[in-house]
Amino acid sequence: MSDDPHSPAERTQRGNDDHGSSDGGWSAHADVLDPDHLRERFPNYDDQIVHTQTQPAESADTVPASEVLPDDLADRLGHDLYTHQAEGIDRLREGENVAVATPTASGKTLIYALYVALCKREDPDARAIVCYPTKALARDQRESLVALYDRLGLDLEVAVYDGDTPNHRRPEIREEADVILTNAAGLNVYLAHHTQWRECFGNCALLAIDEAHAASGIHGMHVAWVLRRLRRILDFYDADPRIVCTSATIGNPAEHARRLTGEPHVVVDEDGSPHGRREIAFWKPPLEEDLGEEYSMDEYLGAVKRAGAATGEIVAHLGLHGVQTLAFSRSRQGTELTAKTVEREAGDHPASGTGGGGVADSAGGGSSGYVSVAPYHAGHGKQTRRDTEQRLQSGDLDSVISTSALELGIDVGSVDATVLAGYPGSRQSFWQRLGRSGRGTDDALSVLVGRADAIDQYVLDHPEFLFEEDVENAGGAGSSEPSSAGAYEDAVIDLGNDAVYARHLLAAASELPIDRDDERWFGAEAVPDGEGTNVEDRLDRGVTMWREAGRLVGDLDRSVRYDGPPRPEADVSMYATDSETFQVRSVDGADDLDVAPIGKDRAYREYHPGAVVLHDGTEYEVVEFEEERPQPWVTLQPIDEEVYTKTHSTKSVSDVEPRASRDLGDGWHLKFGVGTVSIHYAHYERRDVQTGDLIGDVRETGLGPIELRTQLTWVEAPKSLRETALEDVPLGDLLSEPAQYGKGQRQYTFLGGLHGAEHAMIELAPLELRLDSSEIGGLSIDPHPETGVPTWFIHDAVDGGIGYARGIYEHADSLVARTREHVAACGCDGVRGCPSCLMDVQCGNRNEPLHRPATIAILSALESRLD
Amino acid sequence: MQPGRLAVVDSDALSALSAEQLQDALDAADPHAIVATAPPARVRLRSTLSDLDRPILTPDAGTDTDCPQRHVFGDVEVVLVPSLSALSALGDMADGDLDPATETYVLSDLLDLSVRPTELRTVRQGLSAYRDALATDNPSRDHSLPDSQTHLSTGLPAGYHGDWDGLTVRGTAPGGIDGARSGGATDGESAVASLALGPDGTVATTQYRRDSLGLRAIDGIGEQRARTLRDAGYATRDGLANAPIATIADLDGIARSTAPRLVERARAFDAGTVRRRTDESLPRPEPIFVDIETDGLSPSIVWLIGVLDREASPGERYRSFLVREPNEPGAALAAFCTWLESAAADRPIVAYNGDSFDVPVLTEQIERHCPEHGEFWAARRTFDPYTWAVREGNAVLPGRTNGLETVASALGFTGADAASAGADIGDDSAASVDATPLDGAEVARIYREWMADPIPENEPDWQTLEAYCEADVRALAFVYDAIDAADRTAGASPAERAGSESASETTQGRLGDF
Question: Per CATH, the architecture of A498-571 is what?
């Protein structure tokens, strides 16, 4: 994640020290993943590697520091600047806001760090505020900034101000610190006390948003409104700071920075930092038992080798060949299990013991059949984690299996290889994790192990999509990014969610009275590119609502003041769209979960009674669901069994109001708008993780239906599609309808096609957008009572919307094309599809009906209309 | 003139309260009548408190009652309308039947409000039927309703105040608005709301949270300890105050070192006295007592500064600095500073919770509006009895919260003490103190309305507001004297003091009390 402001020279230096040699990384053992080698050396190797790709090394593009900095600072800095660092600083000095989108470890922090130093020379009172996504990162970065300013001989106080800052230190930091490192949840609260911050706010010359790509989804929209509130207060104190948004590479850096902060930014994304050669292998775990032609999701999951187990084998193999490896696993249990697999496999491995041969010996990495491995996750104590980090850095450990905890910017030096148990859901995260191996100019090796779902299969089948530097953005409305942004996902921030907007409006009124001038922050102007968002008269409507609710008084032509119980900002829940949130408690009442409250929508969906949820890598069962209290809660109990739950739901969509639409001709329409989604999560079942077998009966959740007023994208298809979609389907390939269905086999099969199109588009949406696919849902129905035609909906699964459905509307062209191509190319034998194409673990309807040929016909017809 | 007092009990909350907590709430609210939001609450009230001697009003009584029930509580009339037909009957009453000079409160469950943030609108349920019923068969009235009516609904939360197309509507129920729940201090586990209904239409609201009732009002007693004590036969504060410390220390679930502290606090509470825990002395010489009124807890203006100087000549002891014109916020601040400089430059300034509120707010406002006094002000010595007693653990104050008014009244401060104010400034404000029920939130609200639209109709009754502030300043002096006069029962161990500091976390969460 966030890179330290060390010089390129320094980093290389350190890399060499860490390993006590300068062999340039793993390349001395380059053939460890060579297929011939694997056939000989890897247990049961059966061409699991489906693709390898090599990225050539890049040398650094640098600019002498003296071209950008005054001579004395340049001298003390002691090294050149990468071109993107120099450009970023230049643009800031020209008065622009800058969005820096370059890869991990490219030295983005140095841009704003040095700009602050320049500001200080012109105005000794100047202050800077830097907003980080986590408290840990702020602390990590403080060290780096202090070291930098020390080296530059500047007497700047850099202080972290967040929930962990002791009260007695706070006044001093507010008054004296030159650079304040904080987070958006903290700012949400501190803004109420802005008078105490007058000195800092009034002199604020720079506002930096570090890791801006992390501000997306639900959290992102809260951050966006908090930043508008902050800028409004800064404006009140006559401060107009430059803004820097740093992010990993995303598809829409300019748009994202604009939506996040409300201000236009210039993009700096020509990376000048160097990197070594990297070889990336794509690994498809084999099926361990034979499956028939048709099988269910659960049968498939029971049969395929788990990505975690495959990862364990690979890590053992690498370890025995002296390749130091960091592997990423989804869960805490996963890290523990995989670490055990590594130990076991190392003992059994052909490269161990006498069978080891010469290849491994040269590495000094142990051909003894022993690989030193440690799991790493937040459940370990701080000391244990520090020890593991240190042992990895010193080379004492051959491998570490980590949760996403080590994806962040914690410095563990560089390892030779990274192994990913499953595609992490976005290219940005993929590259971030890969980037933990081979820092600097060292060569690096990486392996992606696919899981059994559509997105992972897509990546294994289309590895090139990870490497595309420049694809034409085929999207309809919206995207206006320069082509150099490449093929990364767009970060999504929805400014149209009125529930979230309303909460922040109330908090803002309490901070300072609101009047017409505040249209700038809360009116239509605050929402750049507001297509599809109903922002007309929004400030008036928001004020009227709260006035009627007794929470505001006055009118916009004079001033509107807050008039309610104290601290309305406390009702902003940074991870939910609704203020009606559920606390997440643990069964012994101990407050050790540290989970932000969850929205009601999510509580019903994922935390219903009996559900098994994964939190920070530990599995819990929901044992209590208490809604009838002023503060609802759910209670979790840790479980040891390896089980998962699947929830069955029934759903309807009503009161749809289109806000944008495209008439595709021939009876096809693509629409975006709002609607009411009513979902009843009525039943659930529990299954064994290893075998996929059902455990016990299907049980009732005991919950009633929940209604969401949210954003949706939908496709209305012509009625004639009912026939044309089945034209090429032989009679014998029609689905047999369940007894209660009653509309015939053909119609049931057609529905399987609609359902399949809906599933596959949702499954592959992460190719286009950074999103959490648990926060979108779908419904396929023919006919829909309001549209009157065959229709499939894709909806945001949070109240008020989150922007995903809108993103899908905007990216429909490329998404439909990719989806059609993927489903058509899937190698599964039956007509009902498989987990790699149509089946979805989150389906509330047990993946029924699904019909792959009908899906392909429907997607092809839609694709031809979109062309 | 006396306000009418109602205690509103929510059915759901009621089931979570012990009998002792319920009794405690009613003792504190001392209502003329109790409002049960639903029939089961009425049943439970009767069965829990067998010797209840106040009427219970149940707006949701079913459809069989179509008569309005008229009650006189204090000097105001409260009319219970259990149904729309009862409301029609009220509408049919001749105007002369209800006294237009004093406010009439119409109590029902017929008005409801839900906020739909995803649609950015509110829905007022029941309004049109309500208006129609009020206007039925009375052509002379049409839709023009008398100004002297306030419509109370148990469907709306206490503290809610709104103008519904000409109807003055207020909420009564403990809790928040449907769809816009607030985690603020008056919400959460609020179980009982107490309303003081003024003859002039002013309504003051106090909410009692479950954790401030019965044993739980004692700092350090949560639900678990309360249950332990109840099971052992100490169900009330009074019982705990009279318990042998050794017996309490022997109970499972209460640490030996904790027991003395709990009993000590119960005794202070019970006796209505301050218990000093250290030998720390209060500042000398005689201080100046100060309280400020603002437009809210994140204030943009200090519009009233009340000051008590007990060394001044009689008639000049109390003075206030008032900002009538919201556009000129600096004059009163400057006058206050100038007066302070000439009259009392060397004396400490005492403000309750001043460390967290009054002093930083004054500092910021003085710097902004009259910076020429900034340096002088910054050099003042200030003293906050709340910090000193509660946060620093020098004394235990009585009262279910550590809010000024609660502590003062637990110590025996009465309206009569406040009324002595009138003698000093020679007017009749004493009377208004009694008749107009006010609290800090209501006072801030009145000023906000004035700021939002300073037209003559909105001009506040300044005397009443000044009298409210004066009562608070005098309450502060009263508490100060009580602390000063308290026996110094020194000898509390450092560990105990540390304990009380950590306990202040909870009080800090409730600054809304101030």
Answer: Orthogonal Bundle (1.10)
